[in-house]
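The data are set out underneath:

___
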Amino acid sequence: MPSGDVLVLIDDSGRVVEWGRPAEELFGWSAEEAVGRSVATLMSEAAAAGGERQRERFSETASVLVKPVLRGTSVMWQVLSAADTVPGQDVTILKAMFAHSPLALHVLDNQLRVVRMSTAADGLSNTPVLGKHFTEAYELAEPEAEAAVAQRVLESGEPVVNRLVRHVKAPGRPTHRIHSVSYFRLEDSHDRVLGLVTSAVDVTERENAQNRLALLDAVRTRVGHRLNVGTVCQELVEAVVPAFAGIADVEVIEDVIRGNEPPPVPVHRDVPLRRTAFQGQIAGGHPAGVVRSLPVGVFTPLPTGTPFSEVLSDLRPRLVSIEEDSSWLAADPARAEVIRKSGAHSLIVAPLALRGHALGVVSFYRHQQQGPFEEEDVAVASAVCAHAALCIDNARQFMREWIIAQTVQRRLLPQPPATHTTIDVSQLHLPAPESGGAWFDAIALPGARTALVVGDVAGQGIAAAITMGLLRTAIHTLAALDLQPDELLARLSDTAARLVAARATLPPMDPLSREPLIAGCVIAVYDPVELTCTIARAGLPEPVVALPDGTSAGLPVPPGPLLAGTGNAPFPATTVCLRAGSTLVMGTGALADEVLAPSGPLRPLLDGAGTAPLPDLRDDIVHALAGGNRAGETLMLLARTKALPPDRVLTLSLPADPEAAPIARAAARHQLKAWGVDEETAYTTELIVSELVGNAVRYGAPPLQLRLIFERMLTCEVSDTATSAPQVKHARTIDETGRGLFIIASLADQWGTRFQTQGKTVWAEQSTGVSTERRDDAGRPR
């Protein structure tokens, strides 16, 4: 008899539903005689009537195969003739597998309906599953995807092994379950597809453990890269949502954010906390309402009797089940409203603590389709918060140093910038956590000139601020010598080189000994009489000038090396004409690509500067820079030039002979009278003019020029083309000469020599009580 022939089809009550021709030949009954009768009765009658010959015929049929089949919604048993005998041992193994195997085994027909299942599969569903499509029998999270996978195995025969399948949380189960499922196609000896065999093993605990380890690894990898308390907290909530919680809320004690020491435990209820980070992911909607209820940056109260206050009392994490009638919700209405909106049902409150001191508290919420937290999750939350607390404490200590450095820097910068009659100055300063060494200056020079300085010391913290202060002090000292910008930068570079040498002598354990000193500077000297500007730069970007007509252009200033750099490269200076009303713009490297570069996105702000007030221009640039991710400290100096009124300057060419002094004295006397200078100051000025001109005639070279400038100070300048420097001599009592510069030094507030491309200028300044402010005929300031 061929294998696969249908002998008998039996219903679940044991009665014959179908009686095939092979069964007629084997037992001798026709289908009409057998259908409807009990198969047990038929077999008994066959055995009694047939005797030995019937038993021989029955044994010749070899083995039979009994398998369940689905007819409509009923399961029936089909008896088929099998060519090969299944050994008794194999049958025993199959029975043992379906009865005792820990794997959940299912047999699916070619319609993917469940026709047989092992004992271990009974607990996978709370309802009967035989006869149902396997995706209907078990509440799967993604039934369509699983049906597609099973159908693909049924059609191709290629098995799928260890596929993770998630189940929808069912009543009576504490959490969502995860199974590792394998699909194999079932075929008969004629390669006809009968269905599938599936195996499933519960791997929920394994997957949860792996997910927890992955979460801890993600937190250690992503949290703590920036030394800023707020940034660390934001990195924390981004790492745990949605991998661990649906909502995460971080509140840090205000003193910690300010860099101060954290308070001891228990934390007093009056200690203010600030919400530093919040992240929420709500299924089916945007958490806009939640974000409005819990804004970042605001102070949060610490009501007593809540899990949050209790955690900050003993530093023990808590797993809290959120119920509508939870008594602690009434003590914190704002948070209760957020919980209600989000549908949160499970909460872990864990402390941010280090060495027994509280830094803050983190709240982890799960809501809607998420399963509740388990006790194992409390340990995970504690480990996450322990790492975050260490990062926050590092940021706190850095923040403390940064605050001190910023305070030092602010004290070292001009407060407020000095006012100048020939130039208007406005500065833009945006500190950065990674810096602290940028500075600016506007230094008044003799002859109504102004030195504009922008510098930047690489590095961060107090070390950078102190180095900046040293270089700024050196700038002021060198500026008093009235040096040209290139010479001033060269001397400043020598000073920086000495600081580098001093660092090299520090003990190896001193961190400052390993930090290189990298500093840049740009210096511009504006002359309101000549309307020129001489500029030299060391490392910083090329300055830009915004002209009154609304255009801007970069000034062609050759780059010089960084301060204290190796080699002997010079700091070339450039002198450009700068008409009144022009705006000179100098800044640190952070502004080079955005503002100062010709193709910079913010360069149009300078093109349209024109005659706009400098504070407005500065504010426009600040607003445009807001939110940008730039490296380094942002400092910009805006200087709008003015011309010194012609009636405030006397310029007179002098002969190179003894007649020069009387001519100079007469011209000075007349001009001082026109300026309204008092007699004592006029007399002193005449004496200074006489001595300066006399020295120029005696020791200088023609041509000679006298210039009187009446601005905030009264300045006398005498220029000649000789390169020799004047020196103060201490003449003896019997000497008839040699007292000129000594007299000048005694009478003037300060005096000095300024060397130029051709020759030099010797100058002397005096203070005067006469106002230099120009007024109209009615006495009002112009």
